[in-house]
Specification:
Layout (H helix, E strand, L loop, with lengths): L17 H18 L5 H11 L4 H32 L4 H29 L24 H23 L7 H20 L3 H26 L6 H35 L6 H28 L2 H9 L15 H5 L1
Helix pairs in contact: 1-8, 3-4, 3-5, 4-5, 4-7, 5-6, 5-7, 6-9, 7-8, 8-9
Length: 330
């Protein structure tokens, strides 16, 4: 929408291919590294002092909301999720795991819905035109209230998630990877807000939360023994994860962060720091996608669903179906 309130069409930017992304990103980053004469801790400290802006009240709100998320999860688990599991007569193992997935499904659905609202039902055009995330960027610029709310919700939730992974969730094989993921995500959220890269941050959150919605919904189907349509759920999960995290994320976000950012804002602060974290996030996305693909190829129809349950947020325990020889060999 324009300032006068009239609606105008948004022309989508042409997306680069994978080859364009790899060539462009690494050539631009190597050129920036060669041209950086004083890169190091001194420059980083100076950039923090000059460009990072986080008010003490915002830090306080972060901790308050992180505690509130923890309290809300405990309340919903005690008074809603666990009673519902007992009412449904779930298997004890499933009843123990169901509240965690239910809680995450509730949060990610809410968070992704809000990101979708920001990107497609307001005047922001970051999805259609990713390079616009750096237009009119200024150090210390004000953050729009609607985006600041999204950042507060997400940052405080990942602060809660770091605590929950260690003290509330069942410890599983990939819990260390999940802990690293939460720390990297929280660092990206905090530093992107402090350096006013909030526009591209909204795009990153939108592209990641939807996969978690589908993952937790699929796991709840497992716990409730809803076998019908399991293959459609799995196909949808893998297609969604590939489209959002392995296609749009590198070609819309990483290409913009590596290439378009320097074209729009030469000498943009903390360029290497942010792109290193974004590439680390991409590597973890590839890791989780390949792990699940291998499990799907090795497992039979019933073992497939149980192995998925033991994935990113599972406990690693199998319920009723017994694994076939391929899974035991794995």
């Amino acid at each position: 929408k324009t300032a006068a309130g009239s609606t105008c069409a948004v022309t989508a930017e042409p997306m680069p291919g994978y080859a364009d992304f790899i060539r462009g990103a690494f050539s631009v980053m190597l050129a920036a590294l060669r041209d950086c004469e004083d890169c190091g801790l001194t420059l980083s400290a100076r950039s923090l002092q000059l460009h990072a802006r986080v008010a003490p009240s915002e830090v306080g709100l972060f901790f308050v909301c992180a505690v509130l998320w923890t309290g809300l999860r405990r309340t919903l688990t005690t008074h809603a999720f666990e009673p519902f599991a007992r009412w449904c007569h779930l298997h004890p193992r499933d009843a123990a795991k169901m509240p965690e997935s239910a809680w995450k499904l509730v949060f990610y659905t809410m968070a992704w819905s809000y990101s979708t609202y920001l990107l497609f039902f307001t005047s922001y055009t970051f999805f259609q035109s990713p390079s616009s995330v750096f237009h009119n960027w200024k150090s210390g610029m004000s953050v729009p209230t609607d985006i600041a709310i999204a950042y507060l919700i997400q940052a405080s939730f990942y602060g809660h998630s770091i605590y929950a992974t260690v003290h509330m969730d069942a410890w599983r094989k990939d819990s260390k990877v999940m802990l690293v993921h939460h720390i990297i995500t929280l660092a990206l959220i905090i530093f992107s807000y402090a350096f006013r890269y909030h526009n591209i941050g909204v795009l990153v959150l939108f592209l990641h939360d939807i996969s978690d919605i589908q993952l937790e919904f699929t796991k709840l189907n497992i716990y409730f023994r809803t076998r019908g349509g399991r293959y459609y759920l799995l196909v949808s999960l893998f297609c969604c994860r590939f489209l959002f995290r392995l296609y749009w994320f590198p070609l819309k976000v990483l290409y913009t962060s590596c290439v378009s950012s320097l074209q729009t804002v030469p000498n943009i602060p903390f360029y290497f720091f942010f792109n290193t974290l974004l590439f680390a996030l991409l590597l973890m996305n590839i890791y989780w996608f390949l792990v699940r693909r291998v499990l799907v190829l090795k497992a039979d129809g019933r073992g497939l669903v149980e192995k998925l349950s033991a994935g990113k947020h599972g406990t690693g325990e199998r319920c009723v179906p017994k694994p076939n020889a391929a899974i035991r060999a794995a």
